[in-house]
Amino acid sequence: MSISGCNIRGNGYNGIRIRGSRNVIISGCAVSNNGYDGIHIGSYHGVVISGCDVRSNDYDGIDIVISRNIAISECTVGHNGYNGIRIWRSPNTSLSGCSVSGNGYNGIYVVNSSGVNVHYCNITSNIRHGLCTRGEYVVNATYNWWGSPDGPEYKAVGDPYDPEEVYSHDGPKYLVYEPWLGGPVIEIISPRSGAIIEGDAVTIEWSVEPGAFDVVRVEIRLDDGPWIDVTGTTSYTFTGLSGGEHVATIRAVDEAGNVVEESVEFYVKLPEVAPPPAAPIPPEMLAGVATGVIASVATAIVIKKRRGSTVPAPPHTACAPPSAPAGT
Ligand SMILES: [Ca+2]
Ligand SMILES: [Ca+2]
To answer: What are the C-alpha distances in Å from 112 to residues 10, 156, 169, 279?
Structure first.
């Protein structure tokens, strides 16, 4: 059986209720503003719910009760009056690629269900927990976005503020939520940290992997220089570098506004520059140099004489005898 492309809204009780059989596909439906659950699945085997918009129903958005093998993907489940999705004694239920946000109680509430997997979902801003579980079954909730690059808060009491809270009533070992989806991940491939760059040009190479959201902008800068837009590329060459230490920094921004930076330090070694050949000294400058030397030598002689020492007089310089008059 298949229910697709339907708009199911404003019913006094459940929007869709399926019960007591197997294999149904619900896809591309908008299920909203119904008086009880948006979609209620009871004692059913094999349900696929995909691409549905389930919102603003008075009780649970999607309620799965004593069923098994339920797959929910690419659905938006928001602003329902109670739980976004409740999974009650229903093994092998999986959620992927869903947005579960702003529901009046828990985003996802799992009770005594084995083999529950929740991945690649955005779970944010639910009034109580983003995900709460009861029962001695492990819920695998890795690779989700919890409203913060730092992941969810593990705590017994939920709150309406992100990051979302997660909790397992029977102990933390029954809830796995790490790693979570965060901001983009930048890896600087070249140069290696501390590399010595011969010459005044360096090519920075990197990769950027998206976290929970698509990357919308990548920028690079050298030291405290201006940011340069390098979105969509994976290398950039700086030229005309001065010798010494430098830092290149890459910054990635995703569509949720998460900003991640990664830096690499390197050392630029410029070739030894030979001093320019000495220009011939003009005669008038030579005269000036001679005067200076003469003045110095004369002073030295005076000092030594006043000390009355027996130190021999300094040797004559090649360019002027010490006896030449000073100040000419
Ligand atoms: Ca919350
Ligand atoms: Ca919180």
So the answer is: 31, 18, 11, 92
Domain at 185-269, CATH from 3.10.180.10, 1.20.1250.20, 2.102.10.10, 2.60.40.10: 2.60.40.10
Ligand found nearest the CA of 127:
1
Q: Is the pLDDT of residue 140 over 50?
A: yes
Measured in angstroms, how far is the CA atom of residue 146 from the centroid of ligand 2? 9
Q: What is the pTM of this model?
A: 0.72
Q: What's the 153 CA to ligand 2 centre distance in angstroms?
A: 6
What integer pLDDT is reported at residue 277 of this predicted model?
Answer: 74
Whether the predicted pLDDT of 18 surpasses 60: yes
User: Which residues make beta-bridge pairs with 217?
Assistant: 253
Taking every pair of Cα atoms in the chain, the longest distance, rounded to a whole number of angstroms, is 124
What is the CATH code for 2-176?
2.160.20.10
For residue 94, how far is its CA from the centre of ligand 1 (angstroms)?
A: 21
CA–CA distance, 223 with 35 (Å, rounded to integer) = 60
pLDDT tens column, 65-115: 999 999 999 999 999 999 999 999 999 999 999 999 999 999 999 999 999
How far is the centre of ligand 2, averaged over its atoms, from the C-alpha of 199 (Å)?
Answer: 51
Q: Hey, what are 4's tokens?
A: 């697709």
